[in-house]
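Bit of a strange request maybe. I'm writing a small parser for structure token strings and I need a real example to test against, not something I typed by hand. Could someone generate the tokens for this chain?
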Amino acid sequence: MANGHYAHFGLREGIEFSLRSYFYNYPNEVKFDISVDGLPLAKSSSSQFWPIMGSVVSDCYTDPFVIGIFHGMKKPADVNEFLRPLVDELKHLQQEGFVIDNKNIKVTLNAIIADAPAKAFVTQVKGHTGYFGCSKCIQEGDFLQNRVIFPEVNSTERTDESFRLKQHPEHHIGNTCLEKLKIGMVSQVPLDYAHLTCLGCLKRLIQRWVKGKRDVRLQENTQNSINASLIVLRPFITSEFARLPRSLHEIDRWKATELRQFLLYTGPVVLRNLLPVKYYEHFVVLSVAIRILADPEYCTVLIDYAQSLLTWFVSNYGSLYGHQFLSYNVHNLVHLCNDVRKFGPVDNFSSFKYENNMQKIKNQLRTSGKPLEQIFPDTDCVSEVSACWLRISDNKAQCWWPERSKNVASLISSCSPPVESKWVLYNVEIERYCSNLDKARKVAGNPTYTSTDDELLGRGKRITMPQQDQSTSDEESTDPGISVGRPPSMPTVNESVMNKSATLIGQSLLVLNNNHETLPPNSVGKKTFFFALYVYSLDCLSTQ
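Reply from user aminoacidic:
Good idea to test on real output. This should exercise your parser:
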């Protein structure tokens, strides 16, 4: 791309992995969500990821998967170039579907989930600070005290057809290739309450209570009482909550999950009799409305009541805190119920799990250089793996890979079995068999490597080999009992496959084959036999 690099991992692969992980009986139709957001990689530079993530819609929780990642010093210069691999693949899947275990699966895009800046970027509309920035209604904002505000609560709503026909050209800044898909660019791009309500409205409210103007700011002793109450609650917070309550003085560093906890659980308790009545009632109205919209049952039977509460909250916001604070986030609370009517509870279309997954992506980086190449799988990434990480069925090879790859070398060296609940499964191709880990690493660095290269390059250039008890030849194997050869076809899943090792090169796999039955009886488990120590499974070593 013009200002960075993009790696496309594939939409079908992610959907298929989710189906195999979470479904016993595959459905005829699979719905999935897409999330796009920016991810800063360092504080000292502008290096950033823009991942495209997906998640299968299900009654149970499903982990997000990565569809593609862009890396650059700023966001992609051309959104259509950024989204084209996804759009092309999705168009094909929408038309043809795909087959898994002899069953044809229909694929449907359910929603595009993003915060306000990312949503404006991928849909090519005015941003949240623009006069026509609201994505749900045609209201023109007003400029008040150096900011754009949206004071109306009953403006005419936008429709998918009006977006497609561009009936309001002042709202658009360009064309997006997402319009080529069979989706509603208004109805299927919902508001994200994690950013809208928690990080937007609620965080600003608390900041005004703590360090706002004198007529709104709480006295120091009142703040201390609230902080003390929050700290007292810490031992009683159950494990279902990701974080414990913190002082209001740290509000600038509160995460969205902490704000959600305060809004729905701790806030109404600790603020009672401490926050002035008019502000407390205003806050409780927001808390009750979001509580209704977050409940699977209440969001259906009390949706109209929640709508009236949010309309009242927005209508009275200006008189309590100032009309100059009727921002994009505050205004869009009146549109949140429409998305709940279409998608269900707000957690069905929130970005919480995608934000969590982005941190997992970031944790895979070990150094600041070449971050995209460190995200597995990549066509230029080389890493040896244990063949117990392989899963082969229907002439198709897949490989497990740890989510956090900082200790991947030790996992490979020790032939650690995959932790399927935490690792990711990728499609691979078996390309070549090797005799031991040392040779596999050499072949990974140079695909044309042969054993005769050791005469010129010397042994152990990639790792230090232990001293052998007896002299060995420079042939294909360090032990004459090892038999090596390229298999005529893809092996099937059996016990012998679980006792092999492999080297992964992006989408290709170098398999280290060994016939351990021909090894000398006293060789297993001895450090002098490097290949035996690393190639044998843990079960074999434990018997010695």
